Amino acid sequence: MEIINKKHLPRRSVVLDTYWKFACERQNIFFNKLHANPILTQDEILLKHKFTNAYRASDRVSQYLIKHVIYKGSQEPDEILFRILLFKIFNKIETWELLEAELNTPTLAEFDFKRYNKILHDALKAKEAIYSGAYIMASGKSAYGYDRKHENHIKLIEQMCTGNLLESLLKAPSLETIYNLLLDFPSIGSFLAYQYAIDLNYSPICDFSEMDFVMPGPGAKDGIKKCFSSFGGYSNTDIIHYVTDIQEKEFDRLELDFKDLWGRRLQLIDCQNLFCETDKYARVAHPDILGLSERKRIKQIYRPISGKIDYFYPPKWELNNLL
To answer: What integer pLDDT is reported at residue 197 of this predicted model?
Structure first.
């Protein structure tokens, strides 16, 4: 979608330069970690606070999903769908590994609500967190009637995997169609529907370009407001397309040596996420420029996680032989 030639371009703020500089330096950190360089960055904000990668698929949880959930186990579409949803509803590696320890590889063929409920209930009794803090899931009680959130979500997974969703996904003509199919289910709003659509698109279930569709989340909208003082004739979605279209020109303009993902340029999902991360970064770098939420500090502190990630991308991207 080429929209650069719209008449009324959005008016940039100084934070847009920061957006590109952040993307470049965050990708430098990715490669410094990959090559075991002890000096990750000289940027004090990036050293102190936790930020996601420039490319969503390079994040630790996405990498785990791709390598250990999607492409490990049965490659039957119904089993892949079940594993993706089970992992993503909780979005926590430790929860997946708990289920694996109790069930071996969780499968739709052997799914039992009571057994899953007991495993997760016991974890909660032991004061273990079973959900990631990255996404906020609605409880689903109004749809399924259970008092505990995880019980409603297990029922949600069961409903999604035993109805007509898979058949519809396999016939879907676009990534936006995948998004709309997911949006029909309880507890799944626009932000999660888009995130789950991207996760499904990592798998063999569907194969669409990440340049086909984008849905800005709340954090991205905050970042967009900071990067542009006026939107001109553009919507939030248009602006994500706009910056994705002009990325090479912007890196050249700022004389930044952006190291892409082995030839893969930033996609719409990546530029959407970068707006969210720039919103956080700008709370310290540009405290006088406020977003929609007017948040003024970054909550998450960077804590190194031991263990090297053996990177693995969706095979259809043809990147794994380049690593």
So the answer is: 98
